[in-house]
Design goal:
Shape: globular
Structural class: alpha+beta
Helix content: 25-40%
Largest sheet: 9 strands, antiparallel
CATH superfamily of the domain at 83-312: Electron Transport, Fmn-binding Protein, Chain A
Radius of gyration: 24 Å
Distance between the termini: 37 Å
CATH class of the domain at 83-312: Mainly Beta
Oligomer: single chain
Number of helices: 15
Strand content: 15-25%
Number of strands: 25
């Protein structure tokens, strides 16, 4: 039961509730995971442990653990999505309640230790591919831990790391040393918090530890859009109601969750490698594109692991119906966006629709409870775009208190009845930091180095609130009224027809 001490505790409860199935069918490392995610998503499938992986290493693969609202809410100890968002929001806004991790002498992640001289990634870690057009096998569900070299404050984030096999552009093998001991890591200065750490190293290597197979609450905090300099593991402690237990790494000056199934210790260097090193890869927009920004090389120095270990994997690309971690990313980013209420009043509710209705956080719907002055919606838009979890929002839609932001029918009515396009739609051009893998900009020249910083893209804000006082004059009706039956009239007619029509 929640709080879970480890991934194993979470999976045991899922299995007891029928939310986890173990399968013996042979699953190919290339590219069965993608097909499995499609099947599980289409049919509302359970979490799955594949016990017979046809891969380079005989280790069971876990997938779809977070592939439903039920399992995502279980991971946070709540019943519903709204409760989960409220719980994360409370934790994010009350840092005084965060629980610092505690150190322990050892843990299951130390049962096997593989030293630097023995490292061969293709023999010691499962290499599993996602989409059929992807060139590389990736680590897709690991928590990358690093420290700010100036403050020593820890960061824990979810970043991909690619095995190196052959060069995508030439199909020539990488040198043996790179294949055996190096990843290409999706970490670059300016792109994420770990990248900020790397940028502060002035060309020196940055120590990192990649933890795989974690207590679900700890894993989920890696996707929280909290401020730079805040410790995600302390936030996880608050959400769990008990501190995260950490152990010291063997070769780097970092600490990692003691219950992890794998820990990969290493150092990032060469932060501006050619984006072509990553090869084509699937992204949450649902397309397979070449990388649009460089990353870093990661030299692996040590691997520690459990004897009986699992390898969690997700498919990053939206397929549809969903990619697995759309649910928990949605909870974390939605809760983080509520921080705009600190400086913008009257925010009632924020909704980021879950795929397939939305790609990641491309669309953000903000409901306001009161409009204190004309064009207030534009202030709301600017506030959302100023925040890390909102900066990639391609479209921000602001609605009033009469519109349920979870009801697409009501939103469409608001778009039709409350919006004059020339007056109420704001478009910003040449905006930096928009997501570089948006397929609507695929026509840009290739290769696309630093595309999302150099080219700029556009964002749109739509004010779908009732326009009072923006367009009121002596002949205006200040509050158009919907033509619909009152609740009382509806109930009265229902009572008359219930028996004759066999209504429930």
């Amino acid at each position: 039961m929640f709080p879970y001490h480890s991934l194993d505790d979470f999976l045991a409860e899922l299995e007891e509730l029928g939310e986890l199935k173990r399968i013996r069918a042979e699953i190919d490392a290339k590219y069965d995971l993608s097909g499995m995610s499609k099947v599980l998503g289409d049919h509302g499938g359970p979490a799955v442990i594949c016990e017979n992986m046809k891969a380079n290493l005989d280790i069971p693969m876990l997938t779809w653990a977070f592939g439903s609202w039920k399992r995502t809410c279980m991971a946070l100890g709540t019943e519903t999505r709204d409760e989960a968002i409220a719980k994360v929001l409370h934790a994010v806004e009350n840092e005084s309640e965060w629980l610092d991790p505690v150190m322990v002498e050892s843990g299951p992640c130390k049962e096997i230790i593989i030293g630097e001289d023995e490292i061969d990634l293709w023999k010691q870690l499962p290499a599993i591919w996602g989409g059929e057009l992807e060139h590389n096998a990736y680590i897709t569900q690991g928590l990358t831990i690093s420290k700010d070299p100036e403050t020593g404050i820890r960061n824990a984030g979810c970043y991909r790391h690619a095995f190196l096999d052959v060069r995508p552009e030439t199909n020539e093998p990488y040198p043996e040393e790179l294949q055996k001991r190096h990843f290409a890591s999706f970490v670059a200065p300016g792109a994420n918090h770990c990248g900020e750490h790397l940028g502060k190293m002035n060309g020196k290597p940055l120590e990192v530890a990649i933890a795989v197979g974690l207590d679900p609450t700890v894993m989920m905090t890696g996707g929280a859009g909290i401020r730079y300099g805040a410790d995600e593991l302390a936030l996880a402690g608050c959400l769990r109601g008990k501190p995260v237990e950490l152990v010291k790494c063997e070769t780097v000056d970092l600490e990692v969750p003691a219950s992890a199934h794998f820990v990969i210790e290493g150092e990032l260097y060469d932060p501006f490698i050619d984006p072509a090193e990553f090869g084509p890869f699937g992204e949450f927009f649902g397309y397979t594109l070449r990388a649009s920004f460089g990353g870093a090389k990661c030299r692996v120095k040590c691997i520690t692991r459990r004897k009986e270990a699992l390898w969690p994997m997700v498919v990053e690309t939206h397929q549809p119906p969903n990619y697995e971690h759309a649910y928990w990313i949605n909870v974390m980013e939605t809760a983080s966006l509520y921080a705009i209420r600190k400086w913008v009043n009257h925010i009632k509710k924020i909704v980021i629709p879950v795929p397939p209705g939305n790609m990641h956080n491309s669309l953000v719907i903000v409901q306001i409870g009161h409009k204190p002055y004309a064009h207030f919606a534009k202030q709301v838009m600017r506030a959302v775009w100023s925040m890390k979890p909102g900066m990639w929002a391609k479209c921000i839609l602001v609605v009033g208190p009469e519109v349920d932001p979870d009801n697409m029918g009501e939103i469409m009515v608001a778009l039709q009845n409350n919006v004059q396009p020339a007056e109420d739609i704001t478009i910003y051009k040449d905006m930096p930091a928009i997501h570089g893998w948006d397929p609507s900009v695929c026509g840009l020249p290739n290769p696309m180095p630093l595309q999302m910083l150099e080219t700029g893209q556009s964002q749109v804000g739509i004010d779908a609130t009732i326009k009072v006082p923006e367009r009121i004059d002596g002949f205006s009706d200040p509050l158009p009224r919907r033509t619909t039956a009152s609740k009382e009239l509806e109930q009265r007619v229902y009572n008359k027809l219930k028996d004759e029509l066999g209504l429930p």
